[in-house]
Design a protein that fits this description.
303 residues, alpha/beta, 6-stranded mixed β-sheet, 16 strands, 21% strand
Length: 303
């Protein structure tokens, strides 16, 4: 009996233009990267579930903290005219029909407007709520985090991952637990059928998640969010950008650099070798070239 695989539809959302040196090591001082902040719709036919991965940029920028708006202004040119809600409307899908929202992480250009999704269960990575409450120490303190960003009664925060092997079931309703998936140390089989995995992908910030979806018998796609910000880094052509922080330390866009390299290495190996012999395409949330080359696959179409 043929398998009815999930579909993945990129969503046409906003874009921003940060300094290039924040991301790639060989950037020129005044260079900017104009990059999308892509979100994705995953439709799982067996359960008839609509899953959104990431919420891109908030449509109304004035809804961000006033001081954060000053930071956002340094990312010009920026556009928030198109958001996840408007992107879904292109395919006549209302946000009330979204069953799950998976948050890769809680930086401003990925959180969108969670209140647009009144019926969705939100899924966040380990320690996300502590991060939002600024309880993760001074190096992770961010005055613009919103402690009430996610609805407390509809949010599942995944527990810390095991040191090795599988964890106990932490959500009985869904049967969710951390498990190994080939070379991926910790993933959750979202629908318990081997087609959609929530992937622990540490490095960028605590709780960072990726998603792996089997969209055909001979094809996986790996949605990488901010595990890597530029295709040249993924290809090994350039390293992460670095700079000095206020304490004189050399830092990168990733809080835990060793973990970021480990996650990056897994992504490279998946792209190069596939998963159990099945090809894997790694898609970066901010890859403008990929967005242009694949415009025909955006919702209401799919990859």
């Amino acid at each position: 009996m043929p398998v009815d695989y999930p579909t993945v539809s990129p969503l046409s959302c906003g874009f921003l233009s940060p300094p290039a040196w924040k991301f790639v090591a060989d950037a020129k001082n005044e260079e900017k990267l104009t990059m999308p902040s892509m979100a994705f719709l995953i439709q799982h036919p067996a359960s008839k579930s609509n899953v959104v991965f990431d919420l891109s940029i908030r449509k109304d920028l004035t809804k961000y903290h006033p001081e954060l708006q000053k930071h956002i202004a340094t990312r010009d040119p920026i556009s928030s005219e198109r958001d996840v809600k408007s992107a879904l409307a292109l395919g006549h899908l209302d946000t009330s029909e979204v069953d799950y929202v998976i948050m890769s992480h809680v930086h401003w250009d990925h959180v969108g407007t969670p209140s647009d999704f009144p019926n969705a269960t939100f899924i966040a990575g380990p320690n996300t709520n502590k991060l939002l409450r600024n309880e993760m120490g001074p190096d992770l303190f961010n005055p613009y985090f919103e402690p009430d960003l996610l609805p407390a009664d509809r949010t599942i925060e995944t527990p810390p991952t095991p040191n090795s092997g599988s964890s106990e079931v932490f959500d009985a309703k869904h049967g969710w637990h951390w498990q190994n998936v080939a070379l991926i140390p910790s993933a959750i089989d979202m629908f318990n059928d081997g087609t959609v995995y929530i992937v622990n992908s540490p490095g960028h910030v605590p709780g960072h998640l990726n998603v792996l979806v089997r969209i055909a018998g001979d094809r996986w796609v790996y949605l990488a969010a901010d595990a890597c910000h530029h295709a040249r880094i993924l290809k090994g052509e350039v390293d992460f950008g670095t700079w000095k922080d206020k304490n004189g330390r050399t830092v990168t866009i990733h809080h835990d650099l060793d973990a970021a390299y480990s996650t990056l290495n897994i992504m490279r190996r998946l792209q190069e070798n596939g998963l159990d012999g099945v090809p894997v395409e790694v898609i970066l949330a901010h890859d403008g070239a990929w967005e242009k080359e694949n415009a025909k696959f955006f919702f209401p179409n799919h990859l």
